[in-house]
């Protein structure tokens, strides 16, 4: 049984952490990420615009954090950092950083799936 994707009513990680990655993921270097969406942060790394400041919020994030309808406006073009950041328990593993981002917006940690044993 699958659950509804919790990210579709969260978005906290996109508005809490600095989202940085190797510049080679930008379109000018042959990658998917539009150059105008990033800012250079070191000689070989860039960050999503809006995430290199406090308070942080990626300029590609649309909607209100913690509300239904929040989404990434460049989902198909997002970086490996975004693609690899998973909601807790999405594939059975806890992601404490997911908890941290959610807590910053007063959202509870995602609950671990309940394992029901039929053995007696
Ligand atoms: S590019 Fe999309 S997934 Fe990545 S931080 Fe921005 S809004 Fe979030
Ligand atoms: S903080 Fe966790 S639940 Fe919220 S959008 Fe990010 S990965 Fe999804």
UniProtKB/TrEMBL annotation:
Cross-referenced Pfam families: CxxCxxCC
Superkingdom of this protein's organism: Bacteria
Protein name: YkgJ family cysteine cluster protein
Lineage, uppermost ranks: Bacteria, Pseudomonadati, Pseudomonadota, Gammaproteobacteria, Pseudomonadales
